[in-house]
Amino acid sequence: MFKGRWLRYLALIWKVLFKQIKDVWFPKTHHRRTATLTHNKLKEVILPYPKNQKKPQWVIDKVIYLKAHLPNVGCGTIALTFNRLYQHQGHTVSKTFVYEKLKANQYAVAVKRRNIKHRKPKPVAVNQTWGMDLTFVTLNKKQHLVLGIIDHGSRALLKLQNINNKSALTLLRTLVQIFKQFGVPKAIRTDNEACFTAKFLKKAYWLLGIKPQTTNIASPWQNGRIERCFGSFKQLWRQVDFTPCCNLQTELLRYQIWYNHIRPHSQLNGQTPMETFTNKPHNHKNQPVWVSDWDGVLSGFYFPD
């Protein structure tokens, strides 16, 4: 009996001593427990988009598209613009990425810009929307105010007139003259200049059933047809050395006739603006007449009815 007790005591003492020796000689090392995820659990975990993963092709196409539409900005601005547009889809680009892709796709950018330049605008109904704006021309070393009105559908230059001032009453008088000749349009597009947004002129539009269309501030491209017409007009105007006895309104009328009846337009399938406006193509039976004015600057063939 006593022998069994002593054996148990010795076993307990040995166990305690062995544990102390083990802790001193073999200290515990705490290993981090790694969680193992199954294939199904991995699908549920939302992992961040890896930066070193190859970008989809549509990302490169969008970078080329942005550069074609924003040719004067740098790679940093294009990267910021892309991230603002498509970051919610989980894709972002860096300035270096944009630089490398644009450098490798210079021809693609040039092709995209050429397609944008030669893209035909959407067809617009004839005599439904007019564009109106003001510009200045120099004659005899003096600045003169000129009012231009163009039809969006046919590109017909309905009015090119020198006016003394740009008051709303002067504009309305000129518009009434054009209404008597060509009818009343459904809309007139102008910029935000005070003379075009005057309450008096808006009231007249309301009485005539005309919808005023105003472009955004500092956005001349939104009224691009009249702006393009003024650009072509001034380019030719500067090439002529007018004599001091020239009458401004007479010269404006000469240009208007040439622009409407002689000059063919690429966006009108080779027709002149007035042929499209009246829906009457030129008559092949009559002999065309060669016309030259402004010392040969205005020239072309006129097909009489």
Question: What's the helix count?
Answer: 11
Structural class: alpha/beta
Distance between the termini: 142 Å
What's the CATH H-level homologous superfamily of the largest domain?
Answer: Ribonuclease H-like superfamily/Ribonuclease H
Count of individual domains:
2
Number of strands: 7
InterPro entries: Integrase_cat-core (IPR001584), RNaseH-like_sf (IPR012337), RNaseH_sf (IPR036397)
GO molecular function: nucleic acid binding
GO biological process, one term: DNA integration
Protein name: Integrase
Can you lay out the helices and strands and say which pair or pack?
Blueprint: H1 2-25, H2 39-44, H3 57-69, H4 75-86, H5 95-104, H6 106-117, E1 129-139, E2 142-151, E3 157-162, H7 168-182, E4 187-190, H8 199-208, E5 211-214, H9 224-237, H10 248-261, H11 273-278, E6 289-293, E7 298-302
A few lines on this structure:
The protein is an alpha/beta fold and 305 residues long.
Notable features of this structure?
305 residues; alpha/beta; 2 domains; five-stranded mixed sheet; elongated; 15% strand; 7 strands; Nucleotidyltransferase, domain 5; two-stranded antiparallel ribbon
What do you see in this structure?
This protein is of the alpha/beta class and 305 residues long. It folds into two domains: 57-117; 129-302, 2-Layer Sandwich (Nucleotidyltransferase, domain 5). The chain is 45% helix and 15% strand. The chain contains eleven helices and seven strands. The protein has helices at 2-25, 39-44, 57-69, 75-86, 95-104, 106-117, 168-182, 199-208, 224-237, 248-261, 273-278; strands at 129-139, 142-151, 157-162, 187-190, 211-214, 289-293, 298-302. The strands form two sheets. The protein has a five-stranded mixed sheet, with helices on both faces. A two-stranded antiparallel ribbon has the order 6-7. α3 crosses α4, α3 (57-69) packs across α6 and α4 packs across α5 (95-104). It is elongated. The N and C termini lie far apart (142 Å). The model is unreliable at 42-47 (pLDDT under 50).
